[in-house]
Amino acid sequence: MIPEIKAQFTEDILNEAIQRYDIEPGDVRSLGGFESFVYEYAKNGKSYVLKITHTIRRTVDYIMGELEWLNHLADQGITVARAIPSAKGQWIEEIPKDQGSFLVISYEKARGNAISTEVWNESLFEAWGELIGNIHRATKKYEVSSAKYKRQAWEVEEQLRAETYLMPNDVMIDILKERVNRLRLIPQTRDTYGLVHADLHQKNFYLDGQNMHVFDFDDCHYTYFINDIGITLYYALWYPAKKYENKEEYYRTFFHCFMRGYLKQNTVTVEEVSYLHDFMKIRHTLLYIILHQTSDITTLNPEQLKIRAQHQSEIVTEEPLLPIDFVYEFTQIHN
Predict the structure, then answer these.
(1) Where in the numbering of this chain does the Aminoglycoside phosphotransferase domain appear (predicted)?
(2) Which DSSP state fits 116?
């Protein structure tokens, strides 16, 4: 949580938010939240989610870009957690505070259960790939209704502004700038670039039988489809739901299953796949910067400092994060 947002949040803000959505105070329970305050509540026998963010992070128009795209995906038959208007019919409620405003949005609560070790298998991996392929196919048909609602491009993501959060002498600043500048030169076409979820890891969808219900579109932005794939691979391979003795075999198995599912819904080329390691390294860097944005580095204990140093060493090298040849494995899927 950004310290400036956390410092301004009070019980009065929460009470005002639940009043605007006509929620009984006793029906609200906290779900925590990393960049926003997130709550679950019940109303008329159904479950919903209340999210409270701040203008330090998002503007009203920027959030409207998320909600409009959500509706488009739902209209295309993709199971997403739709937004719910407030008691006065507003998609976003604004609560002024000393330094800006808190912004409140409500969504349907996604059906199903969180991903567990029991369902972490090849069937899930393939369905996951098919889901993202379906989203990419659907977003090719999307046109934002107003320029003011257009979400940002990936390379201007706040957390990629390394010089804002890192020490001036941190080698990461120049390394990140060079990598971003190189990747932004990849040609953009309707078949390779569009509005995507950009954070579809295993904690941002539930499994309801055979159906996957997606939520938390807060980070959606314009980027290459292969970057969106890379983000998912980063979390699934770097932080799997269960341990594997043979990690390299797991990497190959996941990738094969995921891409088989993806190719059922959308196309991707070998050239695009060749950028996967680069985009995974960008995501690894982004998490390094978020650590500096949300924490006081001077208070880290020796073990935390060791982890931070390891994280940095993994980023500065040109070696891939993981020992898998994505291009080779991709060609094997077609053989």
Answers:
(1) 33-251
(2) -
Domains of the chain: 3-108 (3.30.200.20), 117-333 (3.90.1200.10)
Q: What is the DSSP letter of 153?
A: B
Token pair listed for 208: 């309801």
Give the burial class of 250: count Cβ atoms within 10 A of its Cβ; 0-12 exposed, 13-18 middle, 19 or more buried.
middle
Contact 83, 49 (CB under 8 A): no
Distance CA 175, CA 322 (A): 19
The C-alpha atoms of residue 106 and residue 317 are separated, in whole angstroms, by: 42
Specify the 3-state DSSP secondary structure of 301.
coil
Q: Please enumerate in sequence order all residues whose Cβ is within 8 A of that of 298, keeping only pairs 6 or more positions apart, or say none.
A: none
Instruction: For residue 48, give the H/E element and its range.
Output: strand 46-54
Sign, CA dihedral 88-7-292-241, equals negative
pTM of the model: 0.91
For every residue of 176-231, DSSP letters joined together read HHHHHHHHTTS---TTTEEEE-S---TTSEEEETTEEEE---TT-EEEEHHHHHHH
Asked if 234 and 284 touch (Cβ cutoff 8 Å), the reply is yes
121-142 pLDDT per residue, tens: 999 999 999 999 999 999 999 9
Cβ neighbours around 65 below 10 Å, total: 23
- pLDDT, tens digit, 9 for 90 and up, residues 223-278: 999 999 999 999 999 999 999 999 999 999 999 999 999 999 999 999 999 999 99
